Amino acid sequence: MRLHRLDITAFGPFGTAQSVDFDDLSAAGLFLLHGATGAGKTSVLDAVCYALYGAVPGARQSGQGIGLRSDHADPGTRTEVTLELTVAGRRLRVTRQPPWERPKKRGTGTTVDKAQTWLSERDPVSGTWKDLSRSHQEIGEEITQLLGMSREQFCQVVLLPQGDFARFLRADAEARGRLLGRLFDTRRFAEVEKRLAERRRGTEARVREGDAALLADAHRMQQAAGDAMDLPDLAPGDPGLADAVLSAAAVARSTAREQLTVAHCRLAAAESARTAASDALDEIRERDRLQRRFAEARERAARLEERAAGHRENEARMARARKAETVAAALDLRESADTDHRRATAAETRARALLPAALADAGAAGLAAAARRAAEERGGLESARRAEQRLAGLLDERSDLDRQERADADVLEEAEAWLAQWERTRDGLREAIDTAQQAAARADDLAARRDAAAQRLTAARQRDDLAARTEDARRTALDSAERATRARAHWLDLKEQRLDGIAAELAAHLTDGSPCAVCGATEHPAPARRDAGHVDRETEERALAAGRAAEERHTEDERTLSSLREALAAARAEAGDTPVEDLADALARLEEEYAEARDAASLLHSAQEELRRAEREHALRTTARQEAAVRAASRVGHRERLDRERAALEEELTRARGTARSVTERAAELERDVARLTEAADAARTAENTAQRLKDADARLADAAYRAGFDTPEDAADARLDDAAHRELQRRLDAWQHEEAAVRAVLAEPGTAAAAARPPADVAAAQRAAEDADRRVREAASARDAAARRCAELDRLSARCADGARRLAPLREEYDRVARLATLTAGTSADNDRRMRLESYVLAARLEQVAAAATVRLRRMSSGRYTLVHSDDRAGRGRSGLGLHVVDAWTGRERDTATLSGGETFFASLALALGLADVVTDEAGGVRLDTLFIDEGFGSLDDQTLDEVLDVLDSLRERDRSVGIVSHVADLRRRIHAQLEVVKSRSGSVLRQRGGG
After folding, report:
1. Distance between CA atoms of residues 686 and 691, nearest Å
2. What CA–CA distance (Å, rounded) separates 463 from 580?
């Protein structure tokens, strides 16, 4: 990397535009950057760093870059830094503008413009600059990739800060590690350490989790096994935990199986004892049952003996009842005859009470004769009843004639009144029909006119709408024509640009040895290159397609405009130029007139119907008047006939009624008399017959009682039992016999008698013995089940532990392997005797390279006295790997770099910085660093040492390098001729360059 030119505007202390020509300064190899304290020497280096990385070194970077602006700059001048450099054989120009808070162009106050960046590359053939990018991110990535180092590395390697390296010499191993880690980017090794540690913690957590699960299962097995299992005194993660748990589980399973065998034996013995106790209980219960059965039979026999007298009485009563059964038919006959006689006597008494006093003592024959005479008289009243009914009908007919006469009078009166108005009604209806017919004809005419007006109004509205759409289409067609013209012009421009750069496009396909498509040459020493604005074939074709699409859109717009103009002409031909408002008013007036005519015409049908109804009504009224007159003439003769028939019937009825008010009433009196006499005659005959049957029944009953052995019929009746009493008495006799037979059978049983002869049975004692035996069986079964469950649970948990141990084995092996690697890279392993971390190991190798590269220059600066060596000894109890010692050739001893004097520390730091620059350059991919800056420290050297240091720096020119020394030491201005002076003033600092090539 070689710097060529730096342009600074409004940056740091520089209020105006300043330029640095590094090509001129670098011609001598060494150049001096000097100036008063605070003038801005370091700001020049900050500008270089900012141009490359968009940031300044260390703590001087603040905010978003706004703090980089010079306070001496004019408010309208923007801060800008431009750096030209060559890197990797490419001449680049980087321009950066930090954010700028400037006055607003309109109004008061300020506004902030965003930061901007440009990257350009110079074409070595044409000598012109070609823009590459304006993206901050892309430019930053491109610069970092070309230089091969980060901003921190650049500031340590190119801008050599001697104070930092002096501190590096005196620092401890940890501080050296931080600096070297930033320079050589060993974060990947630290990340390896971190990843291994995280993986170790992860696998350790999983191992502990698996061990915890094993211990949990072990605790469950201990709970299941009781005191038969001892847990291992190990924690999760301890070695051998799984084997210890599996061994303890095997012992617990063996003990549990022995306990299960013992429980089986105890259960078998308890079941045998329970069977014997159950058999004894059954025998005691059977003897107790037989003894209680014998005692109950003796008690029942005693109770039968006590009731023996009553049983004999029941037997005698049953014998008398059986005798009385032979007299039962005679008794029932006599009772039935007596009931019938009493009922007939009562009916006769009630019937005679309703007869007249003259017939109260008459016999049955006299009553029957009186009933026949009343019936004959009732039959003679039948013709009188018909005459009475006819008379009632005559009266109804006469009433109907009077009512019809009144109705016909009303009809005649109403018909005469209606017919008197007929002529006037008919003329009015005919006039209404004529008016409605005229209105219908006018409505038809108005409808035609209204339709024509509506069609014209529609055409007028279409005319106005089409006029507006035509105007819009015209403007659209004009716009599309303009766009089509622009698109075609754009295509022509792109085509011309492509033709201008067609050489670069053809050159892109050239390969060595293949002929050129234009000249046919097989060698291509200087093929044309595409510039930033090159137009390729695809871009031209897209522009051509866009132009054609615009032309097609314009053609379509023209067709739309033409069709709209044709439709507008047709609408104007139909509607004319009359405004829409006038046509709408005319249509509204026609609508009103049409509505009035239509309403008037709608009355035509109703008027015609009304006339037809009136004509039908006239015919009906005329007919009704004629029919009423005919009916009135016929009613006169009919009324006279009815009056003659009425007089004859009234005379006949007077004779037939007698003292009654009507023939019907007289007939009803005779009907009641016939019924009473007939009922009384029947009741008298029934009473005589029932008295004779009662006398016959008494005789037969006396004879039957005597033959059955009873003294009187009353005794036979007393001995007789009804059905319920007979059944109850028979039930008692049967129960006595059944009980007596059952008692005798029980007392005769041999087993029952033998049991009664034995001592009383103790059921409670036998029950307690059986319950004790059953309880012992349950306890034994429960113990057996518990032992079986214990064995099953221990087998299940043991299988789960074995499975868990198998699954945990690969994880534990992985944990052991990762743990060994993690402790080894962390420096805590016993195998790492120097306790050196992986990152420290890598940095130690780099430090050893830096020390070797620095020793080459340090020997020249110290006249062969000092040599820098790397030491990996441990410091106290700390870790080793990043020690740095100096070997003094005068004494032959190795000592710490912290013992060097101030001047020795300076040139040792300078040698270390230059060596570090070489190593970092090689680490960055061999990017050549042709421009270096060394900042301060020369004031601590004597003249001889200063000459030796300058000789070393001057030797860098052998590699075509240039070294800029930043110092305010006055003696250096005499020794170094190429100088860049920074002069400060109240208006800001300026740069003065002199003594260059």
Report:
1. 9
2. 9
* Parallel, antiparallel or unpaired: strands 962-966 and 30-35: parallel
Let me know the angle formed at the C-alpha of 647 by 645 and 648, rounded to the nearest 5 degrees: 70
- Cα–Cα dist 973/946, whole Å: 13
Q: Is 692 exposed, middle or buried (0-12, 13-18, 19+ CB in 10 A)?
A: exposed
Q: Which residues pair with 5 in a beta bridge?
A: 21, 84
How many C-beta atoms lie closer than 10 Å to residue 886's C-beta? 25
> What is the average pLDDT score of the chain?
77
CA dihedral 459, 462, 464, 466 (to 10 degrees): -130
Dmax (CA) of the chain: 198
What is the Cα–Cα distance from 856 to 952, expressed in whole angstroms?
A: 10
Q: How many CB atoms lie within 10 A of CB 327?
A: 24
Question: Around Cβ 238, how many Cβ atoms within 10 Å?
Answer: 12
Cβ-based neighbours of 315, under 8 Å, separated by 6 or more: 733
> CA-to-CA distance for 82 and 95, rounded, in angstroms?
4
pLDDT digit string (tens) for 777-827? 888 888 888 878 878 877 887 788 788 777 777 777 776 777 777 777 766
Q: Which two tokens stand for residue 554?
A: 């314009």
Give the count of beta carbons closer than 10 Å to the beta carbon of residue 230: 12
What pLDDT is recorded for position 61?
57
Q: Give the per-residue pLDDT at 120.
A: 92
Identity of the amino acid at 324: A
**pLDDT for position 876:** 47
What number of other Cβ atoms are within 10 A of residue 282's Cβ? Answer: 11
Q: Which residue has the tokens 């015409």?
A: 601
Q: Is the pLDDT of residue 90 over 80?
A: yes
If we measure between CA atoms, which residue out of 772, 775, 771, 794 comes closest to residue 783?
775
Residue 897 DSSP one-character state: G
Contact 241, 811 (CB under 8 A): no
Point out the least confidently predicted range of 312-321, 421-430, 875-884, 932-941: 875-884
- Which one, of 108, 104, 6, 112, lies nearest residue 66 by Cα? 112
* Angle, alpha carbons 361-366-371 (nearest 5°): 110
Do the beta carbons of residue 78 and residue 97 sit within 8 Å? yes
Handedness of CA 966, 96, 61, 917 (dihedral sign): negative
Q: What are the C-alpha distances in Å from 83 to residues 22, 53, 92?
A: 10, 11, 8
Query: What is d(CA 213, CA 197) in angstroms, rounded to the nearest whole number?
Result: 24
What is the C-alpha to C-alpha distance for residues 934 and 952, in angstroms, rounded to an integer? 13
* CA–CA distance, 601 with 351 (Å, rounded to integer): 92
Both tokens of residue 673? 């008399």
Written as six digits, the tokens of 307 are 């009731």
Q: Residue 246, CB half-sphere, CA atoms under 13 Å: how many? A: 13
Residue 584 has pLDDT above 60, yes or no: yes
Please state whether the predicted TM-score (pTM) of the whole model is above 0.85: no
Burial of 822 (0-12, 13-18, 19+ CB in 10 A): buried
**In 606-619, which positions are buried (b, 16+ CB within 10 angstroms) versus exposed (e)?**
ebbebbeeeeeebe
Q: Distance between terminal CA atoms of the chain?
A: 20
Q: What is the DSSP letter of 721?
A: -
Cα dihedral 791/792/793/794 (nearest 10)? 50
Q: Encoding tokens for residue 903? A: 């001047």
For the chain, how big is the Rg over CA atoms in Å? 74
